[in-house]
Amino acid sequence: MIRIVGKRGKGSFESQLDEAAKGKEFVRIDCTSGNPDPVMREGLSPFYLGPVECYDGLVSQTFERAWQCAKVYPWMADADENPGEGYFAWRDMMWAKKGFERKIDIRFPAGKGNARKCLYAWWKVDGTFRKLGYIDGRKHIYLPLYAKAVVKTEAFRRLVELRDSGKNLMLIDFDGYNIHHPRYNFTYNDAIHCKWLKMGHCFVLAMLLEGLINVDEKGVVTYADGLMDDPQRTYSKDLRKLTDEEKLIRGARAGGVTLEEWTALSPSDRTLLRVAARKKNVYARGFTRAAWMRLPMAEKFAVIREANRK
Question: Where would you tag: which of 21, 32, 53, 225 has the fewest CB atoms within 10 A of its CB?
Answer without folding.
Answer: 225
